[in-house]
Amino acid sequence: MFAVYAARQSTDDPLSALELGERPEPEVPEGWARVRLRAASLNHHDVWSLRGVGLPADRLPMILGCDGAGVDDEGNEVVIHAVVSSPGWSGDETEDPRRSLLSEVYQGTFADEVVVPRRNLVPKPASLSFEEAACLPTAWLTAYRMLFTKSGAQPGSTVLVQGAGGGVATALIALGSAAGYRVWATSRDVDKRARALDLGAEQVFEPGERLPERVDAVMETVGKATWAHSLRALRPGGTLVVSGATSGADPSADLNRVFFLQLSVVGSTMGTRDELERLVRFCESTGVRPLIDATMPLEQARDGFARMVSGDLFGKVVFTRP
Ligand SMILES: NC(=O)c1ccc[n+]([C@@H]2O[C@H](COP(=O)([O-])OP(=O)(O)OC[C@H]3O[C@@H](n4cnc5c(N)ncnc54)[C@H](OP(=O)(O)O)[C@@H]3O)[C@@H](O)[C@H]2O)c1
Fold this sequence. Notes:
By secondary structure, this protein is of the alpha/beta class. It has 2 domains: 165 residues, Quinone Oxidoreductase, Chain A, domain 1; 129 residues, Rossmann fold, CATH 3.40.50.720. It is 27% helix and 27% strand. The chain contains 9 helices and 18 strands. Strands 3, 5, 6, 9, 10, 17 and 18 form a 7-stranded mixed β-sheet that branches. It has a 6-stranded parallel β-sheet with strand order 13-12-11-14-15-16, with helices on both faces. A 3-stranded antiparallel β-sheet has the order 2-1-4, with no helix packed on it. Helix 3 crosses helix 4 and helix 3 packs across helix 8. The radius of gyration is 19 Å and the shape is globular. It starts with a strand and ends with a strand.
């Protein structure tokens, strides 16, 4: 079958590690299901895999892609939960120390077909297109858990989103504003700041800019480049939720500020199957839909990866299959 995969790894030139071509069709273990993919979306995770972060070289070649939506072997339209728990695990899948994400241990979604544990299938409502549904399992689910499970924010709270253009960041703005949060956002780019306002942000700022007042919670996926500003932005007792570090993971912790202001720094990763079901329902009931930067056939995946590596996107890149 046709697939997009990591054939090798390169820290500095991730696109050179990307291959498009034939890979073997997957076997279907007992209790797993085969899904014929109709759409899959790109995450920064796929770029990290090409750079050799989080994917040991002895697992190559590895089909990339955490996110997908398609039709299972019984003809049901499904969204795929990307977190694969270890056998016998029950409870919050994100707390299973032996969990993996699709494309880390098991082959990913940038292909004609993927096999996943049957319990990872979530029904796709007809009101969501395959392209929209394929954006939900990683970036949007991560944003959902950051905002609604981890931040402690309530409707009316002020929440700062760093790096407005990213897949997670656009989800944070759209979901947060739909839930009644007052969402503020930063971006390096003037056009992206304008688009963040269209998406529901109440105010936008340049990175590091002084805010009109301190916020209740900050949503961090940028890391080193924005961390100090995130800590400065919080009101005493506020919460910083961090799920990524695109610009680097070794910021100065500014511990004096953390303890004097009694800040909470909370890690967040992906989300549970239950949270994915609730996210799907949230999209259905509010009419909120993932913001898609570009849609292209899977054969043009290299262009999508290039957009992400350059940082030149606003929202999600989606790959389609006929
Ligand atoms: N823990 C988890 O489960 C989980 C899940 C999803 C994602 N993540 C992580 O979260 C991060 C974002 O993921 P994503 O898929 O949303 O990525 P993405 O779409 O590539 O988003 C990256 C965004 O970061 C912003 N940014 C600000 N300053 C930056 C800088 N100095 N260098 C690079 N980017 C900068 C940019 O926004 P502006 O151009 O608007 O400034 C850019 O659009 C990644 O590191 C990813 O691995 C973690």
